[in-house]
Amino acid sequence: MSAEIVNTSPSNSRLLSLDVYRGLIMASLAFSGFGIARTASLQLAENPESGFWSFLQYQTTHVQWLGCSYWDLIQPAFMFMVGLSMAYSYVKRQREGHSYRRMLGHAFARSLILIALGIFLTSPGPLTRWWFTNVLTQIGLGYTFLFLLWGRGVKTQSIVAAGVLVGTWLLFVLYPGKGLDLVTGAPEVGVSPQWAQGHLEDVDPAWHKNANVAHAFDGWLLNLMPEGGIFSGENSPTRAEFKANPGGYQTLNFLPSLVTMLFGLMIGELLRSKREAPEKLKLILAAGVVGLVLGWLLQVVGVSPIVKRIWTPSWTIFSTGWCCLILGPLYWVIDIRGYRRWTFPFVVVGMNSIAIYCMDMLLKSWVAGSLETHLGDQVFQAAGSMYVPMVQATLTGLCFWLICWWMFRQQLFVRI
User: Fold this and answer.
1) Mapping DSSP to helix (H, G, I), strand (E, B) and coil, where does residue 127 land?
2) Residue 265: inside a domain, yes or no?
3) 206 within 8 A of 214, measured Cβ to Cβ
């Protein structure tokens, strides 16, 4: 597993709004949502009726099952931007003289590296945890297939997208062992009766947590892996049976999330087209509105609920709508109107997204502890005990940003 460090500088031909969008998402992660969720919990313990803190807490945490928050949009934004980037990166390689076979090999190698890196970053030890639900592994599982759809035209890409979403829907609704009893729940797979009754009452059994076809697939696949986690004897790790993902996330999510990347690729190819910029903007915004309405309608009529944790077809469409509606204004302000000075803090992060993601996954606790060691035990108490999470998250994220700033000044950008 390796990454390439390239010495390059941003060009005027770059789609700067993409770098800013990527930077916005990566900053949200690296700064841990600025500690808003944990601060909101402290505030709500004192004032449970606060609508302000309830709203902020909802937006900075993952919803339990049905619905969508800002925090839920981080992973689809990742995947949407992967597709968008592909529309540019492989055209560049093509112009540099790379053959299709060479580019396919690069795409396949990138898939393997992303899968390996995702597993590495989410294995707390002492053994490798062979789970494929991390955003990097999900991208890796679909990336080569995405490349095979690059440059195939909107018609072909649309047919494939529809086919994958319909196929995913059929897998879930036709699976004979779907659903669980809401009265008893399924504690053996992490679903208590209280949780089931609170979150699954209006959900068709095909889409129940850890009681669907994707969960059954993981029960087979992950028990073929050398999963670790149980200790016996002299602290020697032994193989542990996989029973369920605590959050309900599944490996097969990569099928519909491939469509998320494909939608990003289609938008990227639109942006690369010879259409006028205002027309491109209108199409992006129109796609966003259609995505929101169609995704919502699929849930309302009972076809497919909006559930990010199992990447339902309606979620795929709905979340893509939001991605378009976030990208559109950024594209208008930055690339059309040319207001770029304010973008620098996001560009610094967006152009080194892999680097800051790895720092976030590996170094967050160590950096926070080091700040306390060198700046004193009270460093996070500057704004009072109620705001400790916000100060800690902000200072820790700032350390990561400063590293990215240094790398930016040195023109060092980590690429896979």
Assistant:
1) coil
2) yes
3) no
